[in-house]
Amino acid sequence: MKSFEVNFDGLVGPTHNYGGLSFGNVASQSNSQQASNPKEAALQGLEKMKALMDMGFVQGVLAPQERPDVAALRSLGFSGTDAQVIERAAKDAMPLLVASCSASSMWVANAATVSPSADTADGRVHFTAANLNCKFHRSIEHPTTSRVLGAMFADQQHFAHHAALPAVAQFGDEGAANHTRFCRDYGEAGVEFFVYGRSAFDSRYPAPQKYPARQTLEASQAVARLHGLSEEGVVFAQQNPSVIDQGVFHNDVIAVGNGELLFHHQDAFLNTESMLDELRRKLAARGAKFESISVPRDQVTVDDAVRSYLFNSQLLSRADGSMLLIVPEECRANPRVWSYLQGLTSAGGPIREVKVFDLKQSMQNGGGPACLRLRVALNETELAAVNPGVIMSAPLYDTLTGWVNKHYRDALRESDLADPQLLLECRTALDELTQILKLGSVYPFQIN
Ligand code: SUG
């Protein structure tokens, strides 16, 4: 049976703005308070989706969330009509209003961790929504994420959904941004690679000193258990705490993997050699030949990686077996990174081509090509069971660009978030979107 890796990209929501909300994420902090352009952000994302579809990859769309999240503000004590809730939050607690307006659900690599059916005990594709509890603005995503994923992957014969882990820092879970799956073929059993930043219950593990480690070992282990993964099918590895302190807030800022290949920075992990040995051994037992490309720090520094998002790239397998790397424009702008990439593609290794995309609107909040997509490996039968409304096609691309052009603003500043009209605009747009994507009722304003 044929199998695919389907990329579901987050559609940027109408309130995309630069709130400076993510301590430890250099781009988010340094672009705080700049005016954003939600329309351009959404169109840049759609262009990437269309380009991948045109290259022959199966591409899907993941819907944005209702923002401002009035229910979150109500849970913090703001009351009255929806307009009054927003008005009072703007007056008394602007940071809370900004957080409740974040369009951060666009970075769907953080929506959930996904295990393909070939890896799981019950032979279904498993999803665990990420609790994202390191940041308030992200911790409010998972209830709607679960409803949207449920509407996309509804068939219980093929898909199993788990609620987010307990909402405490000890089980901090950031989803697929810290998870990679290696395999010979997407439809065969593979090895799932979970990368954590610290242990919550065992003080022998080192931890970063400056910035938070968002993912814990215990959260990764819980997800592996929930998904029914076997001992032979998992490898847990610790991120190097010093790179977290340099702005690597998710592992996908310093490493990316696909098929039998791990592409990573020399300083990405702790105990790199033994971890690579374990991956090699466990993949060999599954008939796969693991390979890694380590980018040396004297060619590309951790700072270069953080600023260019070299590793926040999409590593895609083409029909001829070679691989393609999708990188953001910022890689071309960095001479060391660009020269490294020229050498990489001409060296005769697995990565043969690099394609560059302009994703500046998202990048300025620390979200590159890899952050914007959730990978779901599916066999033909499972793909046929996915809600067809969310699979990208030329007509859907046209409809969605028309929808963005109709509903989105082209400038958004902090003061605009206090405008109750913005909430109405968003609800009108999202109501239409659920019809376009055939999702049914998934948003709080549709179900309460
Ligand atoms: O969680 N930025 C996101 C970026 C997530 C990137 N995802 C991956 N690496 N997979 C975050 O830090 C910034 C929002 C703001 O500042 O307005 C933000 O949430």
Explain the overall architecture.
The protein is of the alpha/beta class and 448 residues long. The chain has one domain: Succinylarginine dihydrolase (L-arginine/glycine Amidinotransferase, Chain A), CATH 3.75.10. It contains 18 helices and 15 strands. It has helices at residues 26-30, 38-54, 70-75, 82-92, 94-101, 136-139, 142-152, 217-226, 241-244, 272-284, 302-308, 329-333, 335-346, 360-363, 380-385, 394-407, 420-436, 444-447, and strands spanning 3-10, 59-62, 112-115, 125-129, 159-162, 179-182, 191-196, 234-238, 255-258, 261-265, 291-295, 314-317, 323-328, 351-357, 373-379. The strands form five sheets. A three-stranded mixed sheet has the order 2-1-15, with helices on both faces. A three-stranded mixed sheet has the order 3-4-5, covered by helices on one side. Strand 9 and strand 10 form a beta hairpin. Helix 2 (38-54) runs antiparallel to helix 16. The longest helix is centred in the first third of the chain and has 17 residues, at 38-54. The protein starts with a strand and ends with a helix. The mean pLDDT is 98.
What is the structure about, briefly put?
The chain has 448 residues and is of the alpha/beta class.
